Amino acid sequence: MANEYEFLSKHEVDALRREVESIALSEDELPKAKNTETPGENKKIPEHLDMGTDEMEQEAEDAPPSIENNGSYIKIAQDNMTAWMYLVEPGEGKDNYTMEEFENFLKKKGIVTGYHHSNMAAMIKKRVYEREIVVARGQAAIEGKDGYYEYKFDPDQSRAPKVLEDGRVDYTSMSSLANVRKGDVVAIYHHAREGQDGYNIKGKAFKARRVKEAQPLKGTDIYTEENPDVYLAQKSGKIELKNGKIDIQAVHEIKGDLTLITGKVEFYGDIIVTGNVESGVVIRAGRNIEIRGTVEAANLFAGGNILLSRGIQGAQRAKVSAKGDIFADFIEHTIMVAGGNVQANSIINSKISADGEVTLTGARGTIIGGYTHAMKGIEATEIGNSVEVRTVVHAGCEKDVYQRLYAAKSKDASLSDELKEASDELNELNRKKQKGQIPQRLETQIQYLEGRTKSLRGEVAENKLVIEEMEALIARGKDSKIVVRGNIYRGTVVSLAQAQLPIEDTTCLMRYYHKNGLIESSVIAYS
Predict the structure, then answer these.
(1) Gap between the terminal Cα atoms of the chain
(2) Helix axes 117-126, 99-108, angle to 10 degrees
(3) pTM for this entry
């Protein structure tokens, strides 16, 4: 080689040097590639050449192609958020790629951040070729969240009817109120949460929106205790959110008619309806219900009293129940249960049950048809009518109370006998045990009898409570009576406790009461 080099002229040597230097990296590119370890790439050519043209060309042919020109490539998503690398298997003379080669390759493509080092390490270790693998990924900005209130009721007061399987719409499932009890959690405040800035793989930053806290919750009927972010109700009632302020009312007034579209109204306090109530409507009140219009076949349930200013026409479907008293102009074709008294101008073909008294008022004051029961007595102007419609009126305890009492007393006798028998047997075995050793089977029998006597004593105690309850009910209705200030017509059945008295002839001004298991009557004398 040295001999061949000596035959080159100075002009030829200079030309060869310029040709070699032209393939080296420029000074601007050198800093980017100074740490590159790819064999044969970016190596500075010696200032003084000591090889001939043939050997230099041979070395260039033997050097393996670099990652940048061996068919490998990088694909970048249009939004510059993801990059994939496709690797070609290294040629002869190169065992594997390096992480530094990968990073330099990415930087030359303008990818400066978001490197997926675990993927790149796996590509090197497992020699993953001819597949596009994610090697860089940006981070979208994660938006923060402003402070907000989590309401424990529906602040929009929006209700929708239930669609049944057959396609019909059940309006009775709707409710127009949101209710709370005193001490209930009505709202919880969640503080603002800061977001996180993002970036793409080319280093462009995306700023997350700035967040802000909400204003303190307003309302005169709410308060906080240990946790200032938890708001509690100061009283029971209807709760609403109006103009950012919590409002709790103990009275819910519905102005106008209550229709099936409204469906169901449930409220812990009082409910007032100024108009009529259509069939199918359900009203539940924790306290009182007042309806100023007429009521059709609706269901009414009150924890207090019920006032039906213009009466109810129940069409044999209405159910009215109150823990307190029920007042109505008239009651027709309705099932009604009162924990207190029932008072009306007329009762027609209805089933009435009151733990207090049933009183018919006004000039008419009549009961026609159906079954009317009052624990403490009934007073009416007329009972029955001239066409002798069967009308049953009952005062005192109903027959089922006596039946339950008899059954409980019978059970008490049976349990007492069984308990005595088990106790006697247990005592006898214990005496034998004290005198000496007894067989194992008797030890087992003693354990069984101990458990049995304990269970029987519990049953006896529970049964005695039932007896006491029934006897108390009977005592409440002991002095009940039925008073008729006008006519009581043939076809009426007067019942007191377990006794019945069919009215065979129309009469008037009568008082009926219970005495020695029989119904006695007397004429009312007015001065």
Answers:
(1) 157
(2) 130
(3) 0.56
